[in-house]
Hints:
By secondary structure, this protein is mainly β. The two termini are 20 Å apart. The chain has one helix spanning 47-50, and strands at 2-6, 12-17, 27-35, 41-46, 58-60, 67-70, 73-76, 81-86, 101-106, 111-115. 3% of the residues lie in helices and 45% in strands. It is built from 1 helix and 10 strands. Strands 3, 4, 6, 7, 9 and 10 form a 6-stranded antiparallel sheet that branches. Strands 1-2-8-5 form a 4-stranded antiparallel sheet, with no helix packed on it.
Amino acid sequence: MGQAKLLADGQVRFHVYLDAGTPEAPVHVVEAALLGPDRTVIEHWDASVLSKLPKGAFSNDFAYNQFAAGPYGIRASMGAAATITLPPVPHSNVSPGRRVTLRLTDVDGRSFTAQLESIS
């Protein structure tokens, strides 16, 4: 996971690639969170929010093996790569220059993080 950014309109955008797992069993991302420098949660998107992301929130790199909204959050098959955009964060929650980390958590409890590159 990388290229995580807070956009001017408050949306969070990042690129993610799934390079592990089995083709038969998709991965389910059940939580996304922005963490402050002290690891406190600034913003949180649970499985119910992630499962309602519109198709336009996913810009998949490939025609097959894609990321998409699923019944348990974000669903992805092995080999999928995409740029994903999460709903807006109130700018009052994130100030310029503040170190912020995006954390994704899958259904098995594994977490993946990326430092936000810029707050614009």
